[in-house]
Amino acid sequence: ATPTLTKTMLFITHLGDTPVVIFLTLLFALFLFWKRQRYWLLTLVLTVPCGMLLNSLLKIAFARARPSFNDSLVLTTFSFPSGHTMAATVFFGTVAAFLVWSIRGRGRRVLTVLVASLLIALVAFSRIYLRVHYLSDVLAAIAAGLAWLALCLTGVDTLRRRRSHFKRQRLSV
Question: What is the pTM assigned to this prediction?
Answer without folding.
Answer: 0.86
